[in-house]
Amino acid sequence: MTAMRVFHAVADGGSFTLASDKLGLSRGMASKYVSWLEEHLGTRLLNRTTRRLALTESGADYLARVASILAQVDEAEAQAAETSREPVGTLRVSAPLAFGVRRLGPILAEFNAHYPRLTVDLLLEDRQRDMLEDGVDLTLRITTDLGQSQLVARALAPVRVVVCAAPAYLARHGTPATPAELARHRCLRYTLSEPVDEWRFGSERVKVSGPLAANNGDLLVDAARHGMGIICEPTFLLGDDLKSGRLVPLLEGYPLPEFRLYALYPHRQYLPRKVRALVDFLADHFAGEPDWDAY
């Protein structure tokens, strides 16, 4: 490998002197490495004169291959060195607002106990950021379809949605037996979903309306808890209320959209240690059925 590096440096710089200075070798030792390599390969790689060096045809072909090999070796060594170090610095993460508030605090506390030298800068918002433009290392996103995203995606957990209402609402307005009956009920709608006034049950699409629409799921859950109407929200928001009976699941025999929680990061051949640490930690944490579905 040393002989290959010396040859690459000589050919790249066009000079034994420049190559020896760059590599910290004597000029005579650099020349010996190249001569040994030529003898080993059984071909001349460089034509030498007193004034200049020139690659032979074999030398030019060998140089191209050597450059590729050395680049891969350098990348592998850098990755191995980074993997062996404890991650440090700041990890900038974005996540959906309600999910972050409800679920990420305990997870990040445990993550910090494992990686105390790593600081997490968490951005909670429901708009989709341009990760590269905003300097975000990792994005958590809940969606049914990533579309044509150029980001690397790792699925972390299923996210189910449930149609539900408070017992008090059902006592006053009745319980819908089919999705079509929702058209005559007071439905509380999440405005960041598309379309806002339509709920999907498999191939069936139902127009819904009601006294409240909002861009925050926690507010809609609270309003439903107080009997204002029927909601269709993810179980990471509803789990405790469904378990306690404050909200009652409806239309359970009908299919609803299937969402997933993803970790997204820019496409890089070698993922930074700090990003990999959090992605792997989240994957381990969410392995199996999410605790919010145990109701």
SSE blueprint and pairings:
Elements: H1 2-13, H2 16-23, H3 27-41, E1 46-48, E2 53-55, H4 57-84, E3 89-95, H5 97-114, E4 118-124, H6 131-134, E5 138-143, E6 152-159, E7 161-165, H7 167-173, E8 187-190, E9 198-201, E10 204-207, E11 213-214, H8 217-225, E12 230-234, H9 235-244, E13 248-250, E14 259-265, H10 273-285
Helix pairs in contact: 1-2, 1-3, 1-4, 2-3
Largest sheet: 5 strands, mixed
Chain oligomer state: single chain
Structural class: alpha/beta
- Overall shape: it is elongated
Please give the radius of gyration in angstroms. Answer: 30 Å
Q: Give the end-to-end Cα distance, rounded to a whole number of Å.
A: 60 Å
CATH class (first level) name of the largest domain: Alpha Beta
CATH architecture of the largest domain: 3-Layer(aba) Sandwich
The number of helical runs is 10
Strand segment count: 14
Helix and strand pattern = HHHEEHEHEHEEEHEEEEHEHEEH
By CATH, the superfamily of the largest domain comes out as: Periplasmic binding protein-like II
Report on the structure:
Helix content is 42%, strand content 23%. With 295 residues, the chain is α/β, with parallel strands linked by helices. It folds into 3 domains: 2-84, Arc Repressor Mutant, subunit A; 89-156 and 259-286, D-Maltodextrin-Binding Protein, domain 2 (3-Layer(aba) Sandwich); 161-250, Periplasmic binding protein-like II (D-Maltodextrin-Binding Protein, domain 2, 3-Layer(aba) Sandwich). The mean pLDDT is 88. Residues 1-56 form the HTH lysR-type domain. Its EC number is 4.2.1.1.
